[in-house]
Amino acid sequence: MADPPASLSGQDVGSFAYLTIKDRIPLILTKAIDTLHRHKSEFFQKHGEEGVEAEKKAISLLSKLRNELQTDKPIVPLVEKYVDTDIWNQYLEYQQSLLSESDGKPSWYRCPWLYVECYMYRRIHEAIIQSPPINDFDVFKESKDQNFFESQESVIALCTHLQELRRTIEDLDANQLKTQFFQLLQISLWGNKCDLSLSGGESSSQKTNVINSLEDLKPFILVNDMEHLWSLLSKCKKTREKVPIVRVDIVLDNSGFELITDLVLADFLLSSNLATEIHFHGKSIPWFVSDTMIHDFNWLIEQVKYYDHKWMSKCGVDWENYIKMGRWVYHDHMFWTLPHEFAAMSQVAPDLYAELQKACLILFKGDLNYRKLTGDRKWAFSVPFHKALSGFHPAPLCSLRTLKAEIQVGLQPGQGEQLTASEPSWLVTGKYGVVQFDGPLAPSLEVPGE
C-alpha cells in the first residue's frame, strides 16, 4: 500500500495551519491568561493567598508556553504526571524519530499541525493542574456558557419544534419521518458553525432560528449522504426482533448551541424508534476552547430544565429521564484528547474501539473529528472517504462537519478545484458542510459494527 500523503503543517507559509499557529493559537492563550487574571479575586475568596499564588503560577506557565510557540522553540515533554503523560511523551519521541538529523528537534512549525494544536491544549491543561488549589479550573467555561446564553432564542425555537414533532410523531408515515430526520441532521450539521476555537474564543453564538435557514443552506452541503443514514437506520428498525438494541453513538464537538442540536437529534432518534439508545462521547479535559466535557453536558441539561419556557424545560426533564433510564449514556475517554489520528485507535485505545464497535451508526461531529478521521493529511479532494480513513472502521460512521481546515476528501472530480478557483477560502470559513458516510450500504445486522 502506498504511503499516505504528508501531514498538514505550519511549514507551509500562508496555509491555514501556519496562520493558526502564528495568529489564532497565541490569541487563545492570551484569552486564557486574561480569564485567569479576571478570576483573581474569586481565587482569593476561595483559597486566600494560596489561590493568588496559584493564579500567578498558571499565568506564568501559559506565558512561557506562548513564548515557546511564538519563537518556534522545540516541543518539550510534559512534566506533570497525569493519566496520559507517558503516551504524550512517547508521541513526542515518535515525532523526533520522523525528523532527520539535519531537521533538528520537533518544533511548533515543523511538526504536524494536528499534533501541535492538540499539544497546545494539553499544555494549557498541564499549566492548570500544576497550579493547585485552582487545578480544576476550566479557562474556557465562561465562553462555553456565554455561547449557550446568547443562543437562547434559537434554543427555544428548536425545543418547541421538537416538542411539537413529538406530539405528532406516531401519525407520521415513513416519508414524513424521513423528512424530519433529514431536517434535524442538517440542524445538527449547521450547529457546528458555532466553534469558539475558529473564532479565537470570540462569541460565535447562534442568534437566528436555524430551522428557517435550512433550504438556503442546502446548496452548501458538498457531500450529502443522508439517504445512506436513513436506509441504514430504517433497516436496523425493521430487524428489531433480531437485534433488539439499536445503538447510535455521537462523538460530540462543541458545547453550547451545537450540543443542543445534537441532543434534539438524539431525542428524535429515540422518539421515532430509529434508535433504542444513544451513547455520547465527550472530552475528559478542556479542549479546543468549546468542546463538550461531562460538566458542560450536565450543566446544559440543567439550564434547559429550569428555563422559564414550557417546551424548553420539558426537553430538559425528558433528557434527564433518558439519562436516568440508561437510554442516554455519556462516556469520556482520554483517547479523544490525545494527538493520534483515529486509525491508531485500535492499537492505542482498544477498549474504546471495542465500545464503538457496538454501535449501529457512529456520528462524528465537527472539524477536529474529521481531521483525526482522515489523519489531517494533504489528500487530493477526490480521494474516497473510505481510503482516507486508513483502516478505521469500527462500525458504519458518518461525519457531520462544517469545513474549518484545509482538508476535504470524497468530492466529485474537479469539484474542489472549481471551488478553489471561485472561493479561495472555501475550506476554512465554516460556510460549507458535509454529511459524509462510510459503511456497508446493506449492513449485516446480526453483529453491529461488523
Shape: globular
In order across it, which strands form the biggest sheet?
Answer: 1-7-6-5-2-3-4
Major sheet summary line: 7 strands, mixed
What is the percent of helical residues?
40-55%
- Structural class computed from helices and strand pairing: alpha/beta
In terms of quaternary structure, what is this? single chain
Rg, Cα atoms, Å: 22 Å
Percentage of β-strand residues: 5-15%
Instruction: Provide the succession of SSEs.
Output: HHHHHHHHHEHEHEHHEHHEHHEHE
Query: Using DSSP, what is the number of strands?
Result: 7
Number of helices: 18
Mean pLDDT: 93
Question: How far is the N terminus from the C terminus?
Answer: 23 Å
| Low-pLDDT segments, ≥5 res | 442-450
Structure explained in plain terms:
The protein is α/β, with parallel strands linked by helices. The protein is 49% helix and 8% strand. It has 18 helices and seven strands. The protein has helices at residues 16-38, 40-47, 49-70, 85-98, 113-129, 141-150, 152-168, 174-191, 214-217, 226-238, 257-271, 294-305, 310-325, 345-348, 350-356, 367-373, 385-388, 415-422; strands at residues 221-224, 247-251, 277-282, 328-332, 361-365, 397-402, 433-438. A seven-stranded mixed beta sheet has the order 1-7-6-5-2-3-4, with helices on both faces. Helix 2 runs antiparallel to helix 3 and helix 7 (152-168) packs parallel to helix 11 (257-271). The longest helix is centred in the N-terminal third of the chain and has 23 residues, at 16-38. It is globular.
